[in-house]
Predict the 3D structure of the following.
Amino acid sequence: MTKTPDTVLITGASGGIGLELALEFASHGFDLILVARREAELEALAKRVRREHGVRATVVPADLLVPDAAANLVKTLEGLDLVVDILVNNAGLMDMGGFANLEVGRHERLLQLNVVVLTSLTRRLLPAMLDRGRGRIMNVGSTSAFQPVPSMAVYAASKAFVLSFSESLSEELKGTGVTVTALCPGITKTDMYERAHGEHDVVQNIPGSFLSSVEDVAREGYEACVAGQVLVVPGLPNRLVASAVQLYPRWLVRTVGGFVGRRSTR
Ligand SMILES: NC(=O)c1ccc[n+]([C@@H]2O[C@H](COP(=O)([O-])OP(=O)(O)OC[C@H]3O[C@@H](n4cnc5c(N)ncnc54)[C@H](OP(=O)(O)O)[C@@H]3O)[C@@H](O)[C@H]2O)c1
């Protein structure tokens, strides 16, 4: 009997890391459920993976910031009779600059998408994976999860949540057949990076060796996810920095971060 391909749900699949993860999973024969707001981009991606890889791709346009978005998305999936074997919580928002200068309410949207929706989708889709005794969850964090980042205070804190939540859950689920992976990329050339690059000198001065390609991030994320690896930091320079900050005293890491970060908050 031929095995039915596993189905991967990817949030934020209309661009950047999410789109590239979709291409990576499709190239290995996985069926896709593509979620984001921009329907035309999702349809174009679905058409491309059907043509190039012969996989099934279902487009589910959704604004994950509307109230009850996670519950409604799961209801839509049930209506379409779609089973999620792999959940990739990728959609996210980023902010740079002084916290006091952030548009009021912007931090709430960031926390809602990066933290609340990610947790809620995981909570809603996990029980069926446990019943089947198999599944994968991959949460997209960031290297900003490993230390405080002055000038990105809310974003870094949201990614610290993603890392902590993913590591805790991966231990809770040991032996169940369901694994949890935290994909923690460094700065990656996507629209998110281009927006920050256009607005902040500090981003323009980042050495090229610290810039990851979206293809490398997606490949390393895919491999870690299917292998059930708990944590993956794509790129050697990022891995070295993420490890080094664990070795230095917290006050020193914070102070160096403050020195760099304050320049972009004023
Ligand atoms: N780029 C980096 O340097 C970097 C580094 C580390 C971690 N990350 C993380 O990687 C993930 C992807 O980032 P990226 O760089 O690929 O960003 P991106 O190019 O800005 O793409 C973000 C994706 O999220 C979707 N999205 C945003 N708001 C949404 C909403 N309200 N409802 C549904 N979908 C929404 C967008 O689709 P629509 O606009 O169509 O809705 C888009 O597909 C994020 O979690 C980010 O924090 C990025």
Q: What stands out?
A: The chain has one domain: 7-262. The beta strands are 7-11, 31-36, 57-61, 86-89, 135-140, 178-183, 231-232. Residues 11-18, 36-38, 62-65, 90-92, 94, 113, 140, 142, 185, 187-188, 190-193 surround NAP (CB under 6 Å). The chain is about 50% helix and 15% strand.
